[in-house]
Structures are given as C-alpha cells and as structure tokens.
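Good morning,

Attaching, inline, the backbone tokens for the sequence recovery test we're adding to the shared suite. The designed sequence is right after.
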C-alpha cells in the first residue's frame, strides 16, 4: 500500500480569558478521505515578562461542528441537547512553551474543529494602556497519513485479503448506498501462513470526537464471524480495519463479505411534488386546470404501497434566509401523516459546510383530533447521517455509528421541541412513527397528524432579552454565539442564577445617569465666574454622559435618544475636553491664547478618539500637555511677581488641594477598582469625584470683573461708564 503524508497549519492566535463563546479561539481543519492516522501538534507559549504566570489552557476537539463547551458551568436552555466535548488541558508552568501531540487513528473524514481558551475571566475592567497583559499564544497544526490505494469491498462479492503482520493492519472500504436499512459484515477462511488458527480484530467505522461509535469484532479460528449494523450512514464510505493478533512473523489470510438490506421508500412522485411547489409559490398556471396534482396538505397516499415500503418519505424544501439561517418547508403542508405501519421520514439538509455554526430547532405539534386512540404516542427521532427506521417504545434512537435525539408527542403532551446546538455537517433525518401500548395491531391502519416546524437559526430565541447574538468568524467560516448581560449567563442567556433583578437594574441606571447632575455645581461656579465657554463644555459633558449611560444599560431600563455609537463618542469627547479646558483655565493664560488652545486641543482630541476610543493616552496625553502648559504659566507668573503662584494659602488649602485630591481618587477608582459587578456604583463615584474636583479647581474670576448683578443687567436706565484705563496724558 502507498501512504501519503500531508501537513496543514494555521496561524497562531492570542488566547483570552473565558467569559462567553467569543473568547474561545477556533481552528477549522478538513480531514481528507482514506485517512488512517491523524496527529494534532498543539503549541502553546507565553510571554517572558513578570506579569506572565503559570496558566492552564483548555483545548476542545469535535468532528463535524464547533465543540459545545461550558467552562463556567452555566445552564443550557430547556430542550437543548448537550453532549460534553472531548478536551485536554495544557499547563504552561516554568517553561515558556509547551508542545503536545494528540493522535486519532482512522479518523472520520470531513470538518474537524479545535477550540482553545484560558480559565474564567476575573471580571475586572482594565483601562487600555495602564497595564500590559501577558500574551498567551496557541497554534494547532495537523498531520495526516492517507492511504492512496485503499481496496474497495464490493457488496455481495467475497474478497480475499492478506494481513502481512500485526504491525501492518489491512484497510478496506465499502460504500453504503442510499436507503440502506442494514449491513452485515462477514469474515471467514481466516488462516495464518503457518496453517494455524488465527485471531484477528475487525474495526468498522471511523473515530469521531467527542463520542466515537466505532464497532469492534474479534474473530478466532477458521469459523465464520459476522456483525450486523442497523441504519449505516447513507452515501458514505465506511472504513474497515483488520488487525492480526497473532505472532509478529505470521501473515493472515481472510475472506470478507459485505451485504446490505435495502429499504424501499414509499412517497409521492417527484413530478407531483414539483407541481405542488409551483402551485404553492405562484398559484395555478394557465392551462393547468386539468392537472391531477393534489392541493397542499392533501398528500396522495397509496395504502398498499405504504404497507409494502419500510418508510414514507415526505418532500422537504430547504430555504436559505441569511447567514446560518435556514427554514425547512414541507411541500405537502406543515401537517405530516404518521402511521404505525412504517416510519415517516423528513430530510433536513445541513451539509453545505456553513450550517454547523448555528442551532437546529425541531418542533412537533400533535393534532389531537386526528388520533383516534387515547393511549397512542407519536415517537420521533432526529439523527445525522442515517435515519432511525425502527422506532419503539424505548426510543433508543441509535443508528450504526451515532446516537440520535428522541422526541415524543401524545394527547396528554401535544407539543415537543428539540434544540441541537452546533449540529454537525451532514444530512439530518426526522423519523416519526405511531406507537400503541399493545403493539402495532392495536393501532391498525390509524394515523395521526403532526405539524412539523424545523429551522436553523444563528442563536436560539435571539439570545433572549438579556443577550446579544454575535456572528463570529474564523477565516471563511462563520458561527454564532451569545454575549449575555445584566448577570444572565448560559449558552442562550437563559441562566438567571446571577441575574440582576429589575430593581437593581433601575438602581444602576439611576446612579449612572443622576450622578452626572453633580456637574451642576461646576456649571454654576463657571457661570458665576464668567467662564462661559467652560460652562458650555461641562453642560455638553453632563448631557451626553447622562444619556450615554441611559443607553448603555444591559437590562430593561434602557433609553437611547440616538445611535449608541454616537452617544459613546460624544461622552468620551466631552469627558476629555472638560479636563483639557479646566487645566488650561487654571493656567491663567491670555484670552486669545486660551481660546486658540481650546479649539486646537478639541480638534486633536476628536481625531485621537476616532483612532482609538478606549486608549489611555487619549485622556492622559491632553492632561499631561495641559499640566505642562499650566506649570509653565504658573512659573512665569511666579517669576514675574517674585513670589509663589497662586500666592494665597487659602487658595491652596481650601480649593487646590481638595480638588487635586478628588481628581487623584477619581483616577484611582476609574483605573484600578472597576469590575463588571461593581461598575454601576464605582463609575458613579467617578462621575461625582470628577465633577466636584472641577468645581474646586476653577480659578476665581478676574479682579476687574464684578459679580453678576441681575437687577442692574435687567433694568433699563442710563449708566455712567467707568474707564478702568489709567490716564497717562499730561495737563499743561
């Protein structure tokens, strides 16, 4: 046999601490057909700085779809099917780099996914630029060993083969046709080269993760041994591995035979389905009055054909709506007839390669008036690759190499729903059959009407009122995840274990919005001291900060007067410009120079915020530059007056020192104390402290300007104008 090795690699990704599925870094690979060995090379590394500590990286594997993970231990939505993913842990201790190998023999061909993440996030809100997080990198490479000339076992034809040695197993494959109800594999004439009784082990099927349903058969001696499989995967190649368990130098000769039991489906003809589809979409066409096509909901059924066939196939149309959004429509109407004679089968096509990143929802509704037997139950199974053709009361829903998902409806419970999270790329089948407690004879020829709704959605229920459905991308592959808020958690934001109450949400909104009213004293002081431009900036900041936080709330207490991004930008701009104009006002510059710096600084701040809105230097840069201007101006004033500036000790003790202290406390709270849990009151404290510090730091008004005298300003009378200039001319 000729083996070919292939190597596939993807670029490394920076890992994140886990808080929702978007933090997990996804790797997508495609394993070719006839692969006999798959080896993953997992490389993890971290930085060398002092902030880098030992860390545990969790890596999840899955075949056919992204792995469904739950690192936080939250609850999944009701009716959702959850099977734990296969995962390993990689520890980065004293070593900067870790290399791990994972081997999979006879892997299933198709899509394979790897998801990696760090432990749970601490929830602390870090200001970008204040601290340097440690970079943890992860890269996954894939090596495959593929057999180029794998022998094909033809159904019904005995095939003699030789296993050269235990170290070199025999690989063959057989193609499973469509509508195969069962498969029987038989091994006979097992003889060693030493003419002794041989012992071999036969492995049927491929390995899939997280669960593998590979079947094993051990044959001893020359007697025939066989294995029967129910519902093998349709229209797929099935790998068969024969391993010798004898001595190392002895070869083994065997003869293999594969046979299939084919199920003959009974359904309406494709021509009638095509006519029905056209009529349902565009109505009856001219000249089609004599057509014998049935109306929607009146599927023609032949009773004799139904008895002789092993399943009744219902035509289903796949309708693509959007990215990872599909609706399945039954041509004969949403109501499906279900009998006890043979199962009713619906095909749900999810094999495009772009459907595994959402949630498959199947809903059943029983028409109670259509069931004549009160104790009858409609059993249903949703399975991938091959349908379940033998439904019974136990509802095992298992096929040859997979485990399906059971559903049932009855007169006592007429509704049932199933949610398959990240369904694997394949053909999915929905099988329905009427069951009676005393067997098929009790049901007779009766039937039940079941309304079927099936669709693929990016996020189930659009993540609910406390979540946001986000479309994620890894190269060309798209998948969806829910980002929860207001303390809610879970895959679809349905876990209310840590959820905030409505009262807490209202309190958070009131604190974050009403705390901005503390700018009113600063505005009043600025107006009283004739700093009208500064007062306008504070008013702007107060307004947009109030309505930005009213729109930024995660719960139900939300009010947005304009686009969220616009409110956020205006809030950040007002905050930085307020600090800029306050420090420049304290510098006591000439008016023309001060206003030029006001405008020029505002334009530069607006530009920097557009480049990086959350960068720490967008705030620290203008602050430091304004402080440099203020210190330079104060030194100039002090040198000119030959004493300290400001000269009054009262100004320092009662205004400047309290204002500076409040500003430093506000910066400490903003940079080091805010978390997701305490954000609503720590950020409110930031609002109060900043507004109060502005009121303390504003300098007194110019000496030549008198306080506002409203009675003099509003009355209409002649006034004597006083010239403050010094008369310098000489009298002769």
């Amino acid at each position: 046999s000729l083996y070919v090795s292939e190597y596939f690699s993807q670029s490394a990704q920076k890992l994140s601490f886990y808080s929702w599925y978007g933090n997990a870094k996804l790797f997508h690979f495609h394993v070719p057909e006839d692969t006999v060995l798959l080896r993953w090379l997992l490389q993890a590394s971290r930085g060398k700085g002092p902030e880098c500590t030992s860390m545990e990286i969790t890596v999840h594997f899955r075949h056919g779809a992204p792995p469904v993970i739950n690192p936080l231990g939250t609850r999944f939505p009701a009716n959702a099917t959850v099977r734990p993913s296969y995962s390993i842990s990689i520890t980065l201790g004293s070593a900067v780099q870790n290399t791990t190998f994972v081997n999979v023999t006879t892997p299933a061909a198709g899509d394979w996914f790897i998801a990696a993440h760090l432990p749970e996030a601490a929830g602390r809100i870090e200001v970008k630029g204040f601290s340097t997080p440690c970079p943890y990198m992860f890269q996954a490479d894939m090596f495959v060993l593929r057999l180029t000339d794998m022998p094909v076992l033809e159904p019904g034809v005995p095939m003699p083969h030789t296993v050269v040695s235990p170290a070199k197993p025999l690989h063959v494959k057989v193609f499973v046709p469509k509508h195969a109800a069962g498969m029987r594999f038989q091994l006979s004439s097992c003889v060693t080269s030493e003419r002794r009784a041989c012992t071999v082990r036969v492995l049927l099927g491929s390995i899939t993760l997280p669960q593998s349903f590979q079947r094993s058969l051990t044959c001893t001696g020359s007697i025939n041994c066989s294995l029967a499989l129910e519902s093998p995967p349709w229209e797929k190649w099935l790998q068969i591995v024969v391993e010798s368990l004898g001595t190392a130098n002895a070869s083994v000769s065997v003869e293999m035979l594969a046979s299939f039991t084919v199920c003959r489906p009974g359904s309406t003809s494709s021509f009638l389905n095509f006519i029905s589809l056209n009529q349902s979409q565009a109505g009856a066409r001219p000249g089609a009055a004599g057509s014998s096509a049935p109306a929607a909901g009146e599927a023609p059924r032949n009773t004799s054909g139904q008895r002789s066939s092993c399943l009744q196939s219902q035509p289903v149309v796949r309708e693509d709506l959007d990215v990872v959004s599909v609706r399945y429509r039954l041509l004969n109407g949403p109501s499906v007839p279900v009998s006890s004679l043979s199962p009713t089968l619906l095909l749900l096509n999810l094999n495009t390669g772009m459907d595994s990143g959402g949630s498959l929802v199947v809903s059943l509704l029983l028409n109670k008036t259509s069931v004549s037997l009160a104790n009858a139950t409609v059993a249903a199974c949703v399975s991938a690759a091959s349908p379940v053709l033998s439904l019974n009361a136990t509802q095992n829903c298992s096929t040859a190499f997979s485990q399906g998902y059971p559903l049932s409806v009855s007169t006592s419970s007429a509704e049932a729903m199933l949610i398959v999270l990240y369904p694997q790329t394949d053909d999915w089948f929905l099988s329905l059959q009427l069951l009676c407690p005393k067997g098929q004879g009790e049901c007779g020829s009766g039937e039940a009407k079941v309304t079927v709704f099936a669709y693929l959605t990016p996020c189930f229920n659009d993540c609910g009122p406390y979540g946001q459905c986000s479309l994620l991308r890894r190269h060309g592959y798209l998948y969806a995840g829910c980002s929860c808020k207001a303390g809610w958690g879970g895959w679809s934001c349905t876990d209310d274990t840590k959820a905030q109450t409505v009262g807490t949400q209202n309190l958070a909104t009131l604190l974050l919005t009403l705390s901005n009213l503390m700018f009113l004293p600063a505005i009043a002081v600025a107006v009283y001291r004739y700093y009208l431009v500064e007062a306008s900036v504070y008013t702007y900041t107060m307004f947009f900060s109030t309505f930005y936080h009213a729109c930024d709330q995660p719960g139900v207490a939300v009010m947005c007067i304009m686009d969220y991004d616009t409110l956020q930008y205006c809030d950040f701009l007002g905050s930085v410009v307020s600090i800029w104009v306050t420090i420049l006002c304290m510098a006591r510059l000439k008016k023309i120079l001060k206003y030029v710096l006001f405008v020029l600084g505002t334009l530069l701040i607006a530009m920097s915020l557009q480049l990086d809105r959350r960068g720490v230097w967008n705030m620290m840069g203008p602050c430091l530059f304004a402080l440099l201007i203020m210190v330079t101006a104060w030194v100039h004033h002090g040198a000119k007056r030959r004493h300290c500036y400001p000269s009054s000790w009262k100004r320092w003790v009662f205004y400047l020192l309290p204002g500076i202290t409040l500003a430093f406390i506000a910066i400490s709270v903003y940079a080091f104390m805010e978390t997701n849990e305490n954000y609503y009151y720590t950020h409110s404290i930031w609002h109060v402290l900043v507004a109060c510090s502005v009121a303390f730091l504003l300098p007194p008004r110019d000496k030549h300007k008198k306080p506002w005298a409203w009675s003099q300003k509003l009355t209409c009378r002649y006034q004597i104008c006083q010239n403050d200039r010094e008369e310098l001319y000489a009298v002769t």
